[in-house]
Design goal:
Layout (H helix, E strand, L loop, with lengths): L1 H22 L16 H32 L2
Length: 73
């Protein structure tokens, strides 16, 4: 039963992530997207960092949650 609920939670999280990525397609192609601008590198780092950081934190806390629950058995 524990494995089924964990798999269901993981699938729900992946589905929510996929839906949220599909909803923000306008952010990927906006007017004035200039790669030669002085702040281009900073803006790209902030944008991709805002995508990677929540994913990394979610994986980290998920790993800790599963590890703690396995240790209690």
């Amino acid at each position: 039963m524990y494995r089924l609920s964990t798999i269901s939670t993981a699938c729900s999280a992946l589905l929510a992530l996929a839906i949220s990525l599909m909803m923000s397609t306008a952010a990927f192609a906006h007017a004035g997207h200039d790669h030669a601008a002085d702040t281009s590198l900073l803006m790209h780092m902030l944008f991709y960092g805002s995508l990677i950081l929540p994913i990394a934190l979610g994986l980290w806390f998920g790993y800790r949650y599963v590890k703690q629950h396995k240790a209690r058995r």
